[in-house]
Amino acid sequence: MVLNSKFWISFAVFQVVFGFAVFAITRDYYTQDTGTVSAHPPTIGQSAPVWPNRITETEIARLSSPALSEPTIQDPYQISRRANEFFANRQYEKAAEMYERLLAFSPNDAEIYNNLGLTLHYLGRSTEALGKLNEGIAIDPEHQRIWLTLGYVNSQLGNTEQARTALTTATQIGSDESIRQSATKMLEGLP
User: Fold this and answer.
1) What pLDDT shows up at residue 39?
2) pTM: predicted TM-score of the whole model, two decimal places
3) Distance from C-alpha of 94 to C-alpha of 106, rounded to nearest angstrom
4) What is the three-class DSSP state of 36?
């Protein structure tokens, strides 16, 4: 559909009028008499920052909180993408939070349990990691990668027999040859 010049002229006029209306409304707000609000007492010789009267210290703290720096994502695909980015950047705390959120969307996905388990292990929460990995295995005992991860975490914790059992399972199930090779190599490295 080709739009004619009348439409574009009308559209441009609307944009200009709208811009002036927004400017007029907000100009009044920002040019009002301001009061002093400070989250911290000023140091001698320093003046406190000046904020418009309507903004309270609580609102300032809320607006600068880290929770607002990461918008709430509702799309499972985007949550997964962000979780994997955080993991790749070694931001394990944020990655774990995102993987937990993913579980709410897909509580029967062993791959999410695998990723969360490995992330928790890297955070030093290995007991919790083993729990998540075992939950994932209970959901899908044929998931080859989660057995590899379970073997890896157990080997890191010195649980040699549990590591051997998990890694042996990873070599016997599934069709991913790279996982099978990794499991075999880890098995060879066990005492």
Assistant:
1) 34
2) 0.64
3) 19
4) strand
